[in-house]
Design a protein that fits this description.
This protein is mainly β and about 375 residues long. Helix content is about 10%, strand content about 35%. Strands 1-2-3-4-5-6-7-8 form an 8-stranded antiparallel β-barrel.
């Protein structure tokens, strides 16, 4: 940690921590935010529902025969005021065994220290999930155990990736000279609402982000931000943990292309993007002769593999031959960022192996 950060931790935190916890981490909306319920930015200062949500892995019986048990995963989502939803996956969690087909949905509420959720199948038979924050049990109508799951805490394999030689470090916890109007918290985290001081053409970028926990918020209000590459193409940042993963959710090219798999972790867990970007090409007359191409790894899993994007996304700037700065969108949500760096490169997109090597700190 830099001397600058140690000073912030040792002095500024002592004078501002009480006010900070009493405003955001103790479930009060941030000034200027829509009235959409509590906003939590510290996992140590959350509500009772937070400890119950998360990811669970175990086994599930597909019929009454024990030999038909399969590996399975669950994602439990807190929706505020004791309400919950859950998504079940046969094979394992997204990015870890689930083949990407059927999702089973549950809804329910907290009853004391546990959550009880129900799934009604097409044949009228109901199954009940009972979740206590460490274990989830799937029960049939007659009480038979049909599945058991245990909570897991996944960590992105590229979390903490160090910049290779020749990389441009955009933010390392202290120096913001390569960013414009950057705001840094007392614990050395970058806030949304900045852009690179320089324009970059083709590059590989690593970034880490942490979504707030906003249990009552819905849709685009649930921890919204994004990386606007060249100010034109947005890779969406949003709390869409447990959802389908569509064109306006986390990992998507905003309103243009959904991720191949929704790899969003629960809120308040650090996540990673590793992005390989090659801008569009134009001829001497200014005509576009090749679309922008992009690969994105979300939490180490490829969600866009060298795909062509034919136009700008959302509110992005119009396409053109000249590179523009890359922005971190401010959408009035306390999304935090750290360890952001990029490597300028040729116009040919890297392979997955190249990206993995880069995030491992190798040249």
């Amino acid at each position: 940690m830099s001397c600058h950060c140690r000073l912030l931790r040792g002095v500024a935190i002592l004078s501002t921590l009480v006010a900070l916890l009493s405003s955001t981490a103790s479930a009060q909306p941030r000034p200027g935010q829509p009235e959409e319920g509590p906003v939590f930015i510290d996992p140590a200062q959350t509500d009772h529902d937070y400890r119950l949500q998360g990811e669970y892995v175990g086994w599930q019986r597909l019929s009454s025969w024990q030999r038909e048990s399969r590996r399975a995963g669950l994602q439990i989502m807190a929706l505020g005021n004791g309400q919950f939803a859950a998504t079940g996956y046969i094979g394992g969690l997204p990015g870890d065994g689930w083949p990407g087909h059927e999702r089973r949905l549950f809804t329910g509420q907290r009853q004391g220290d546990v959550v009880e959720l129900t799934d009604v199948e097409s044949n009228g038979a109901s199954r009940r999930l009972v979740v206590d924050g460490q274990t989830a049990r799937l029960l049939a109508d007659d009480g038979r155990l049909m599945g058991e799951f245990h909570k897991v805490h996944r960590v992105s394999p590229t979390l903490g990736a160090q910049p290779p030689r020749g990389a441009t470090v955009l933010f390392d916890g202290s120096d913001t000279s390569r960013l414009v109007d950057a705001a840094v918290t007392a614990d050395c985290l970058l806030q949304a609402g900045t852009e690179t001081a320089q324009a970059y053409g083709n590059f590989r970028m690593h970034a880490e982000f942490r979504l707030p926990y906003k249990p009552l918020a819905r849709g685009q209000n649930r921890g919204n931000s994004g990386f606007y590459l060249q100010s034109r193409y947005e890779v969406q940042v949003l709390d869409t943990f447990g959802l389908e993963g569509v064109e306006n959710e986390c990992g998507a090219l905003y309103k243009t292309r959904r991720p191949d798999v929704n790899m969003c972790y629960p809120p308040l867990v650090w996540q990673t993007y590793d992005i390989d970007f090659a801008g569009p090409r134009f001829d001497e007359q200014g005509n576009k002769v090749r679309d922008m191409r992009i690969s994105v790894w979300h939490n180490g899993v490829p969600v866009h593999a060298d795909v062509a994007i034919p136009h700008k996304t959302g509110a992005g700037r119009p396409e053109g031959p000249d590179p523009l700065p890359t922005k971190i969108q401010d959408h009035r949500n306390p999304v935090m960022f750290r360890n952001i760096w990029l490597v300028e490169r040729s116009a040919s997109p890297a392979t997955q192996g190249d990206a993995v090597a880069a995030t491992a700190g190798r040249d």
